[in-house]
Design goal:
Strand content: 15-25%
Number of helices: 3
Structural class: alpha+beta
Order of helices and strands: HEEEHH
Radius of gyration: 18 Å
Number of strands: 3
Distance between the termini: 51 Å
Helix content: 10-25%
Strand order of the largest sheet: 1-2-3
Shape: elongated
Largest sheet: 3 strands, antiparallel
Length: about 80
């Protein structure tokens, strides 16, 4: 299979701002011209049990609590139907 341009994680971080992530795609914005788009990624796991060196520090953390507060997720942990079940 042939690919277009390929970036490693460092190159991606230098050239793009990551806006979102849903496997196997990452949504990005290129700061140089403001253009938004999506890139497909392929993960190659080098060590099944310790990926700390591979992943490094997170670029951005968005918690479940933040997503609920923003209205992007609905908390159904205490939800009931119309009969109270």
């Amino acid at each position: 299979m042939q690919y277009g341009q390929v970036w490693d994680a460092g190159e991606l971080a230098r050239e793009f701002e990551v806006l979102g992530f849903t496997a196997p795609y990452v949504v990005v914005k290129r700061p140089s011209d403001g253009r938004k788009g999506s890139l497909e990624f392929h993960l190659i796991m080098r060590n099944r049990y310790d990926n700390s060196d591979f992943w490094g520090e997170p670029m951005h953390v968005y918690t479940r609590a933040q997503a609920i507060a923003d209205g992007l997720l609905v908390d159904l942990t205490a939800a009931t139907d119309d009969r109270g079940h």
